[in-house]
Design brief:
single chain; mainly beta; Immunoglobulin-like; 4-stranded mixed β-sheet; 4-stranded antiparallel β-sheet; about 50% strand
Length: about 100
Amino acid sequence: MAGNRAVRFRLIGTKSNRDAIGASVRIFVEGSAQTRMVKSGSSYLSQSELPVTFGVGRRDRIERVVIDWPSGRSEEHKNLVTGKTYECLEGKGITPLEGF
């Protein structure tokens, strides 16, 4: 369906492992929540894309994202624009990247 949007998060661990494998990312939009976990391959000779992607329909913002890092640290960022990829550096903040 045309007009649907998404938001992506690329996590980089500093205290946790660099690829942030095991991190949990939750987004909150208009009273609903979605969760994704950063994981590597789940079966023999498989692999998974490390950035996590959330579909958000036609919404142009998400209210907040909560990242639970494998190290035990938890971070929250609010009022993010959809249609972007964000780079999240553990303990250092979040930065929108050019393109999707």
